[in-house]
Structures are given as C-alpha cells and as structure tokens.
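Appendix B. Extra example for self-study. Work through it before the problem class; the solution is given directly after the inputs so you can check yourself.
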Amino acid sequence: MEAKTKDLWVFVETKEDGSARNAGLELLNPGRMLAEKQGGKLVAVVIGNGVDAAVEAAAGQGADQILVVEGEEYQHYTTDAYVNAMEHLILKYGPTTLLIGATNYGRDMGPCLSSRLKSGLTADCTALDVEEETGNIAWTRPAFGGNLMATIVCPEGRPQIGTVRPGVFKKQEPVTGHAEIIREDYHVSADQIRTRLIEVIRDAAETMVDLEGADIIVSGGRGVGSAEGFDQLKDLADVLGGVVGASLAAVDSGWIPYAHQVGQTGKTVAPKLYIACGISGAIQHQAGMSGSDCVVAINKDPEAPIFEVANYGITGNLHEVLPLLTQEVRKLKA
Amino acid sequence: MGYPQVTCALETEADGDSLKVIQQGPEEKQVIGVDMPCVVTFTQPSFEVRYPTIKRKMAANRTQIPNVTSVELSGIDLTRCGLEGSPTHVKSTFVPVHDSNVVMIQEETAEEASRKLIALLSDEHVI
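Solution. Structure tokens for the complete assembly:
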C-alpha cells in the first residue's frame, strides 16, 4: 500500500487488565525522535478491552495521537482479531512506519501483518534511525547470533514494520499528556477468530518474575553449580530489592525455570544493575543484558568474556563472594 | 496462505480435525485450539532432542530426499521470492565493538573485595 501520511505508529500492547506492557510504551521514546525526523506525528495504537490505563500511559509517554480499538474480542490476544484490527487501521490511515515490541504477541502479529500488507518487516531490532537521503527507517539488528550487526532498509513497502526487543529503549518520565484520542469502532466477529484459548497453565513460581521491569538483577550461570546454589543469588537479590535471572546453561541444567532466562532465547533486560555470577558471557547471553547501566561480573575465570562487558569484576569463587556481598548490603541498609 | 497461525508453540496434540497447541504466552503457558490446516511455529521445546542411534543414522543415509524446484511449485509468485523479491534489504553490516573498561577489584581477601565493590556501587548510587 501507499503511505497516506508521514506518521509513525507504535503498537502499545495491553495486558488482560487493560494496562499497557512496557514493550510498547518504551518504543514511544525512540518513536518521538524518528517521527520528528520523518516529519509526521507520533501515534500510539491501543487495542484491547477496557484500556483506559494503557491510553493514559501512552499519552504520558508523549504520543501526539492515540488510536483506540476496544471490544470483548480483544480481551485475550488472538492473531486474527489483532491483525484484522491493525490492518483496518493501517489501510484507513496509511502510516509510513509501525514499531512493535518484540514480545511473544508482537512477534506473532508483525510477520502476519506485513505479509498481508505486502510490506517488509525487520525483526528483533536493537537500534533505529532514519536514513537522511531517503527518509526510510534504518533498522539495525543482530545477525549470526550477535556476532554481526546488520542495518536493514525497506525502500518500497509501506508501512515499514519493525519489531524491537523489549528493554532496548527506556520509558521516559511520564509527562502531562495532550494526545488527541480517536476511538475507532471496529469489530471482528467470532467466526473470523480461528484460534480458541482452551486453558491457561499457571505456574505460581514463573509468574512471579518481572525481569524486564526490574531495576536490579542477580543472574547465575553454569558456575552456580546447582539449584541450591541459586539460594545465595536469591538472598542477594532480596536485600537489594531485585530479582534473580539466569543464563541458558543454568536453565538447561534444570536449576531454575525458563521464566528467569536472560539472553537471545530468553528475556532482554536493561536494569540499573546486573550482577552476573558464574556466567561466562557468551554472545547470546550478552545480547540479552548488554543494555544494563552497570554490570558486575563475578567469575573464577579471569578470561571469561563477561568481563569485557562488565563495569566491575571480581575474580573468585562466587559461593564465597555472594554471602559477603549480601552481608555488606545489609550493613549498608541498616 | 490464509491459514490460521499459532506461534511460540512448545508441544502439539492432534484432536480430530483440530490441534491443541501448548503455547508459551507472555507470562504463562496456554493451550490454544486451532482447526487444521494451520501453520504452527515452535520455540525452544520443553524436551531434549532425541539422540540419533546408529540404526537411524543408517536409515537416514538411505532416505531419498525429494528436491523441489520452482518449476514444480507453479502457484508461486517468483517476483516475491528470494533476495530479489524481499521487500527489505541489508544496507550495511558491522561488527559490534565493546570497549572494555572493566575495573577489576583485586584485594587481599574476598571480604575486602566485597566491601570495596558495595562501597563503589553505593557511591555511584547504583544501590
């Protein structure tokens, strides 16, 4: 399709309670810069059921305009309902660019949408800019497991679509919103939705971790050695008010559930402090945590690649160091 | 293709003409029902990949793998295939550089190292 405007859209994914996921909100931040360079408005698209909280949050992140589609059929995410609604909006308003958070649902929606619109999608981006000469978005993403970065353009297809890893960009401090809110009455009938949610399998332990929203993460890898070894990480995380993360090696060993995994096949995180304990720092792990403000690495191997991305390093036995750190933090907070 | 899709699947189970797909949702796993034909894409599975036995390896060597080309796939629009047909293209590539500026904390004892690290983090208001 042809773009009708120079507007840049950000899909603000909602939770079932109608609040916004950070993945979408944080994209409004780079979205502002890109929209200005492209000379169009910054538009948030909110789809869900009872999404006032998400609309308010999007306005607070500086959106110029918010398109809202509400209905019971949007309460739980389904590919058919969301892609149909999004396609309807895009054909009606014709944005030039669409940013989607690379969450499980964002990764589901993006390719289906770009295929229907015969446009191009760049998945899992970690940096965004505008090409000066053409006005196209320059999408940068890791290739070959993060060993190479590729900058990709989509010269013809519109809207140019990209999914961006959560945690790569940060939300700004909320401002007083002045967004124009447009409510779009669009419904998808039950027979158009071809997947059914049969059951939600809740696992109390897994739902407790919010790695992407955490300010402090104490993360463990192969060097932790056992499930019990993670207790020491939990102690330090608790006194710091943080959460426990893990590398693929620790999750694969069955020491900690997948929900804690940081890295290319896990979560992308960007906390203020990331303490990597017994993690060698494979490129796939770094892909998930290199956006952290401050990285502390504790490893018995002084040559471990994790030290290359760390701000502070301690070479030593983590089982000796961790309880001492916990003790020092307790003293500090006492 | 106009088929329904389920992504981030971990396991599937046939249920008559439909599939039950265990899907990794944003927070928890969920079971999704979908009629066939459909497209299901998988993520990291919950089970180990089966180790090939000698017998299976030998069977694999004897297996004929059909080679399908664009001639047989007459329904395909070749202008939308391959590098030529891609709406996106790679403009440039570069190797990511990490300028290492790690401060190694080397003290006589682990106690002293721990104390120094926590003091540094506290001074920088990280904790």
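Self-check: The first strand of chain B starts at residue 5 and ends at 15. If your reasoning did not lead you there, revisit section 3.
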